C-alpha cells in the first residue's frame, strides 16, 4: 500500500497512508462553522448524484469500471494465445493474434508479466558490468521531473562502497505519451524500461511484476535489487553497507518496512480499496511497505512463476507479500529497522545521513536535501 504514488504521481497520498498506519493527532475542524459547511457540500453532492444518474452510488463511482475490468480478467482472459509446455509452463505464442483463452490454469494471467512485451528493455545495461544492486523505480511515463531529480541524486551513484549500482525506471504506456521524447530520453540516459501494459494506479501490481520479469530475464546475475518509488529519498551508501553486512542472506531475502496484520480496506472511496472478489481475507499477509523494499535477486524469477497462481489484486506490495507466503518464505526485518522511515516531519541532516529511506513531498525536496547532505563537513554535530 505504500506504492500509492508511483502510478498517479499525486503527492501527499502516501502521507495519508502513513498517517493512517501511525495515527497522529489531527485537528479536523477548527470550528463548528466548517463542519456545517462540509455537511452542506456533502448533501448537495449527494442530491446531484442521485438526481443526475439513476445509478447506485457504487455504480457512479468512477473507479468501478476499472475494478470491473480487474474482476473480468480473473474469469475471462483477453490475452495473446498461449501454449502449455509439457512441464506445465505457459509459453506466450508471439506469432499468433490475440484471442480469448478460457482455461482455469490461465485465470490469473492478468498479473503474469510475460503477457506483456517490452517496448524498451535496455538489454545491454546489465551485461557490461554485473551490478551488485539494481534500483528499479516505477514511474509514470510523463514524470520526467522525478526521473531527472533521481538522476541527479541517488540515481547517479554508479559505484557505491566499491560496488556497482544500477538505477532504472519502469514505465507502462499511457495515451498521452510522447514516444519520440521518451526514446530520446532513453538514448541519452539508457535507463528506461517500458512495457506495453496501461500505466495506471490500479495496474501497479502489473508494473511490479514486469520489474520482476526484467530482473529475472535481463539481469539475473545481480546480487540484490530494490523496488523504490519515485518520490523517495534513498541513502544508497547505507543500503549497500547494510547488504554487505555478514549475516545478510544471499537468497530468499526480502526486507524493508515490515507490515503485519494490515486490514484490507473495504471502504469504496479509499485509494487502497480492494473488492472481496479480488482478495477475500480480511487481512494481508506480512509484507514490506511498497515505498522501498529490498530483495535478493533470486526472488524475481520465483515471483514471476508464482504470479501464474496467485490471484492478482491492485495492492502491489501486499501482492508480493502474498507471493512470499505462497512460496513458504518468511520476510526478514532489516538489521536496523529504523533505517526504513516512511515519513519525515522535518529535514535533519544528521538523521538523513543515518537512514536508508524516507518519503518526500516533491522532487525539489530531493534535490535540496541531497545537496545539503552532500556538502562538506560532518553531518552530525
Ligand atoms: C502457437 O504457435 C505454433 C507455431 O509456432 C502453432 O503450431 C500453435 O498452434 C500456436 N498455438 C496457439 C494456441 O495458437
Ligand atoms: C491495465 O492494463 C491492461 C493491459 O494493458 C489494460 O487492458 C487495462 O485497461 C489496465 N487497467 C487499468 C485499470 O488501467
Automatic annotation (TrEMBL):
Keywords linked to the UniProt accession: Glycoprotein, Glycosyltransferase, Golgi apparatus, Lipid metabolism, Membrane, Signal-anchor, Transferase, Transmembrane, Transmembrane helix
Biological processes annotated in GO: lipid metabolic process; protein O-linked glycosylation
Catalytic EC class: transferase
GO cellular component labels: Golgi membrane
Enzyme Commission number, as recorded: 2.4.1.-
Pathway(s) per entry: Protein modification; protein glycosylation
GO molecular function, one term: N-acetyl-beta-D-glucosaminide beta-(1,3)-galactosyltransferase activity
Transmembrane domains' residue ranges: 32-51
InterPro entries (UniProt xref): Glyco_trans_31 (IPR002659)
Cellular location(s): Golgi apparatus membrane
Domain of life of the native organism: Eukaryota
Annotated membrane topology: Single-pass type II membrane protein
UniProt main location, coarse: Golgi
Family: Belongs to the glycosyltransferase 31 family.
PANTHER family: BETA-1,3-N-ACETYLGLUCOSAMINYLTRANSFERASE (PTHR11214), HEXOSYLTRANSFERASE (PTHR11214:SF115)
Name of this protein: Hexosyltransferase
Amino acid at each position: 500500500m505504500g506504492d500509492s504514488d508511483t502510478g498517479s504521481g499525486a503527492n501527499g497520498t502516501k502521507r495519508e497512508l502513513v498517517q493512517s498506519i501511525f495515527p497522529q493527532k489531527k485537528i479536523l475542524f477548527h470550528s463548528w462553522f466548517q463542519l456545517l459547511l462540509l455537511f452542506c457540500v456533502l448533501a448537495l453532492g449527494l442530491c446531484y448524484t442521485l438526481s443526475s444518474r439513476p445509478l447506485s452510488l457504487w455504480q457512479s463511482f468512477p473507479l468501478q469500471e476499472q475494478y470491473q475490468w480487474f474482476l473480468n480478467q480473473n474469469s475471462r482472459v483477453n490475452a495473446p494465445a498461449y501454449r502449455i509446455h509439457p512441464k506445465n509452463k505457459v509459453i506466450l505464442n508471439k506469432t499468433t493474434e490475440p484471442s480469448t483463452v478460457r482455461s482455469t490454469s490461465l485465470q490469473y494471467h492478468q498479473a503474469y508479466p510475460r503477457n506483456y512485451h517490452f517496448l524498451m528493455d535496455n538489454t545491454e545495461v546489465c551485461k557490461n558490468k554485473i551490478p551488485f544492486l539494481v534500483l528499479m523505480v516505477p514511474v509514470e511515463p510523463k514524470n520526467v521531473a522525478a526521473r531527472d531529480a533521481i538522476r541527479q541524486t541517488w540515481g547517479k551513484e554508479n559505484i557505491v562502497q566499491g560496488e556497482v549500482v544500477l538505477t532504472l525506471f519502469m514505465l507502462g504506456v499511457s495515451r498521452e505519451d510522447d514516444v519520440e521524447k521518451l526514446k530520446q530520453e532513453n538514448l541519452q540516459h539508457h535507463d528506461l524500461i517500458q512495457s506495453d501494459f496501461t500505466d495506471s494506479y490500479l495496474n501497479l501490481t502489473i508494473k511490479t511484476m514486469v520489474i520482476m520479469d526484467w530482473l529475472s530475464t535481463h539481469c539475473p546475475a545481480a546480487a540484490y535489487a530494490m523496488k523504490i518509488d519515485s518520490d523517495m529519498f534513498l541513502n544508497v551508501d547505507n543500503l549497500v553497507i547494510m547488504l554487505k553486512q555478514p549475516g545478510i542472506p544471499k537468497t530468499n531475502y526480502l526486507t524493508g518496512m515490515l507490515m503485519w496484520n494490515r486490514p484490507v480496506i473495504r471502504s469504496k472511496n479509499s485509494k487502497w480499496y480492494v473488492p472481496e472478489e479480488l482478495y477475500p481475507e480480511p487481512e494481508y499477509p506480512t509484507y514490506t511497505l511498497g515505498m522501498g523494499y529490498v530483495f535478493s535477486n533470486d526472488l524475481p524469477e520465483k515471483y514471476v512463476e508464482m504470479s501464474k497462481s496467485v490471484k492478482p489484486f491492485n495492492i502491489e506490495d501486499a501482492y508480493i507479500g502474498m507471493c512470499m507466503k505462497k512460496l513458504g518464505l518468511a520476510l526478514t526485518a532489516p538489521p536496523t529497522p529504523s533505517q526504513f522511515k516512511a515519513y519525515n516531519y522535518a529535514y535533519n541532516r544528521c538523521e538523513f545521513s543515518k537512514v536508508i529511506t524516507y518519503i518526500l513531498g516533491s522532487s525539489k525536496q530531493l534535490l535540496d536535501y541531497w545537496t545539503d547532505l552532500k556538502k562538506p563537513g560532518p553531518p552530525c554535530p
